[in-house]
Amino acid sequence: MEPSEERAGSMVLRAWLEGGQPDCLRVRILSSIGPDQAPPLAVSTPEAVHEAVQSWLEQLLIRPDDVPVTPG
Description:
Blueprint: E1 9-17, E2 25-33, E3 36-37, E4 41-43, H1 46-61
């Protein structure tokens, strides 16, 4: 039996309140899965942070051979 290939990733969130104001949330998101690093993402709502984390986790759960091929 072949050993299973480990699939791993990382996500870093840096959040701050611009000007110290509670309605001025800023979040910078850095993420990668395996050797592939995504471009930095900047969001400003908790909902957008949640969406980014959920999307990243969904991508992590996809096996490489499950990724659909889109014709070019």
